[in-house]
Amino acid sequence: MLSAPVKTIRMALTGNDAGAEAMRQIDPDVAAVFPITPQTELMHAFAAFVANGKVSTELVTVESEHSAMSATVGASAAGARAMTATSANGLALMWEIVYIAASLRLPIVMPVINRALSGPINIHCDHSDMMGCRDSGWIQIYSENSQEEYDNIIQAVRIAEHPDVLLPVMVGSDGFIISHAMEVVDIYPDEDVKKFVGDYNPKYGLLTGKDPMTVGPLDLQDYYMEHKRQQAEAMKNARKVILEVGKEFGSKFGRTYGYFDTYKLEDAEYGMVAIGSTAGTAKVTVDRMREKGEKVGLLKLRVFRPFPGAELVHALKHLKGLTVLDRSDSFGAEGGPLFNELRASFNEETHKPLIRNFIYGLGGRDINLEDLENLFRKTMDMVKTGEGAGSSQYYGARGDE
């Protein structure tokens, strides 16, 4: 329940509109934009703010997503607070520059409206776009609903720009399910958001007038590895900063954020881990099964990079059985991305639940209350028989049981 110390304005917004509202309040110096479904309306709404004088942002319209990220990198390297947004194939077209943005330690914030990657062509939700670049050096935060998308984008600026981090941040929101669905969102006063985000005063920048610097030079065997280690250390530093920013956000706006949220998990015997909008449906499933006397619970993962393995193990190790839901596949691996990360985190634990993985919802295929209850019951059967433990399989595809 919201108990914010600030007065909010309740608005009916789509996820894209909520993302645009966050960007309006942040008022970045530069935003480079290119349309791609289902992100397009987010930048359309923000472009209207620019046209109507609601922000001072320099809006750069470019010819491709590769150019959008390139322009954003250039602006950020120059010393500007820079943002962009994309989805799926657009993120894939940015691929080269996504890695460069992280390697140059540029605190770019990018909403990503999660969508299946081609092919065949599909414009609906899954997490294959962000999961595909999970090792690019970007912090990755996922949203359950429009409120979280709005809140996460605001926090992402503080996380990215922290001097101990200086890494770019992707904020994921499920395509169409969140981006085009209208919900009630509590919007905080402009002045409070601006105060929380603060002014951007970069220590390094090509146009800041400070010490001379070089950006993007040739970096061969003599220093490349040290620069990669600096990125790795920055990602470790982000763990603390994410929690600090989430706590401060809660003290100011009434919603505290961490690596994940649990729902009726403390006394549960059987658990489920999910990312994104599916968590909202899973909460209702947990309530329905609790009414039947079933001890089930949910963990909704918010932060995928840096991966909070030790914290997840602590929250889940008391369970008898655990189902991990992946809305993307890692072809040729031993399961989906979330499953493999989580199972590896449990590797050294003596007491741990039996775990199984389901790949679901690819290309926007729906998953409903009955499906999620069925998955819980599959977990219960796994604990009774031991069959299926450690396995990964598709759920909801034709030919499945």
Helix and strand arrangement:
Layout: E1 9-14, H1 15-26, E2 30-33, H2 40-51, E3 58-61, H3 65-78, E4 82-83, H4 88-93, H5 95-103, E5 109-114, H6 128-132, E6 139-142, H7 146-161, E7 169-174, E8 182-187, H8 190-197, H9 224-253, E9 260-263, E10 270-275, H10 278-291, E11 296-301, E12 303-305, H11 309-316, E13 321-326, H12 337-345, E14 354-359, H13 369-385, E15 392-394
Parallel strand pairs: 2-3, 2-4, 5-7, 6-7, 10-11, 10-13, 13-14, 14-15
Antiparallel strand pairs: 1-8, 6-12, 9-11
Helix pairs in contact: 1-2, 1-7, 3-5, 7-9, 10-13, 11-12
Short description:
The protein is α/β, with parallel strands linked by helices and 401 residues long. Helix content is 40%, strand content 18%.
Classify the helix fraction into a percent range.
Answer: 25-40%
Give the CATH architecture of the largest domain.
3-Layer(aba) Sandwich
- Uncertain residue ranges: none
What CATH calls the topology of the largest domain is: Rossmann fold
> How can the largest sheet be summarized?
6 strands, mixed
Query: What portion of residues belong to β-strands?
Result: 15-25%
How many domains? The number is 2
CATH class of the largest domain, named Alpha Beta
List the total number of helices.
13
- Strand order in the largest sheet: 9-11-10-13-14-15
Distance between the termini: 39 Å
